[in-house]
Amino acid sequence: MAKKIYVGVNGKARKVRKMYIGVIPQQFTLTDEAAAWERASLAPTARKVKKGYIGVNGVARLFFTSGKPLSQYAEGAVIKINEGGKPAEFYVAKHNYESSLNGNGRTLVVRKEAGVKKQFHSKTFDVQYSGSDIDNWLINDYKNSLDAGVQSVLGSTKIKRTSTADRNDILTDSRPVFLLSLRERGHTDSSANNYEGSPLPNISLYQQGYYNGAKDSIWTRTIHRTSDRYVFFINKYGTPEGNYPSSYLGVCPAFTLPETLLLNEQTNQIIG
């Protein structure tokens, strides 16, 4: 990703967010530009600089990019993030996600639809989220599919999960990528610990799962309180159910990004 550039204003360093350059109208040449402007009462047109490069050891290096900060996108808006070099759609789910745990300035993004189906765990009677097959896949294989620039700002987000030792207890884990809980997706169940976070804004966006454009079942990270056999998922009708962890269901990764991250205003894609 491009480095930040600053300019001095009254003795203080100010970050440059927008840059413009004067462009001479194409119908005039440099040799007669002054006469042309006088005749036509025209001046150079200010054009916004989208990307700026500088030569370093004979190589063009990106030093400036213009864009829209993630913080300026409304919750519920859709942005694009590359997975394996191809753009995937994500909801801007919540600014300042779990601020009591993570502080301010981190924005939660959630994949709009499941891109793959995975087992929660290959062991039928192992329902613990931490260290599960799906947890390991998210923090390793999936994370590594993201562009290097995105990986560099993922950090580690603190999330709430149910303890397997005492399922009335809530633990705090740190993860670069994770699944939403049943509660965060706007559902509760008498057999679930309903304190794994709070319902997200625009909750109707998350109460139903999709896979390849069709309604389908998706995993949550919420385990069953009274059974060692079940993990909660949201079925294709938008209803929570318990299922064996060895089942193959849709996966919608979630993670947080810094609110200062810039996106292309035309494509809503992260600039990298």
- Element order: H for helix, E for strand: EEEHEEEEEEHEEHHEEEEEEEEEE
Q: Could you name the ranges where pLDDT drops below 50 across 5 or more consecutive residues?
A: none
Strand order of the largest sheet: 8-9-10-20
Amount of beta strand: 35-45%
What count of helical segments does DSSP give?
Answer: 4
Number of strands: 21
Distance between the termini: 4 Å
Helix/strand class: mainly beta
Report the biggest beta sheet as strand number plus sense, adding barrel if it closes: 4 strands, antiparallel
How would you describe the shape? Answer: elongated
The value of Rg in angstroms is 24 Å
Mean pLDDT, nearest integer? Answer: 88
Overall number of domains: 2
Question: Which bin fits the share of residues in helices?
Answer: 10-25%
Task: Summarize, please.
By secondary structure, the chain is mostly beta strands. 12% of the residues lie in helices and 36% in strands. It has four helices and 21 strands.
Task: Characterize the structure shown.
The chain is mainly beta. The chain contains four helices and 21 strands. The chain is elongated, with a radius of gyration of 24 Å.
List the helices and strands and how they pair.
Layout (H helix, E strand, L loop, with lengths): L5 E4 L2 E4 L4 E4 L9 H8 L4 E4 L2 E6 L2 E7 L2 E2 L8 E6 L2 E10 L3 H4 L3 E6 L4 E4 L13 H13 L2 H7 L2 E6 L7 E6 L34 E2 L2 E2 L2 E6 L7 E4 L5 E4 L4 E4 L2 E5 L3 E2 L9
Antiparallel strand pairs: 1-2, 3-4, 5-6, 7-21, 8-9, 9-10, 10-20, 11-19, 12-13, 14-15, 16-17, 17-18
